[in-house]
Amino acid sequence: MLELSHGDxxxxxxxxxxxxxxxxxRLKHQRVDESLSPTEMSVLxxxxxxxxxxxxxxxxxxxxxxxxxxxxxxxxxxxxxxRLDAHPEDRRxxxxxxxxxxxxxxxxxxxxxxxxxxxxxxxxxxxxxxxLRSAAPVLEKLARQ
Length: 145
What we know:
The structure is a single chain. By secondary structure, the chain is mainly α. It has helices at residues 8-28, 38-50, 55-62, 66-78, 100-121, 126-144; strands at residues 82-86, 94-98. It has a two-stranded antiparallel ribbon. The protein is globular, with a radius of gyration of 19 Å. The mean pLDDT is 90.
């Protein structure tokens, strides 16, 4: 495992944190449906990536408390973006599944965000773009830890 030393490494970590946070905030403003909170969008994204899940599983993946996830799921269900089905093995639980409407909204949101990001990237020179392309898998690895 890499050990960070003082000075340049700390400056690099600080710059990375700051840049990722600013870029994330700007990406969040590129939403298609402004009526959804970033947390609601995140839950839909998790369902899109991993498939149906119980509210407890979603709470763990989203790093929120189960009662909070129960409220989020209820809001999404009221908006027609998820449905609750009986758990196939445990009738006391429910399984949350995104609807076609949610899939379409997520697809449109991704298209809008990708177009915005592609416009930003078009301002880079070839060397900067090559560095960013090679950094993408590393950033993805960090995001999944």
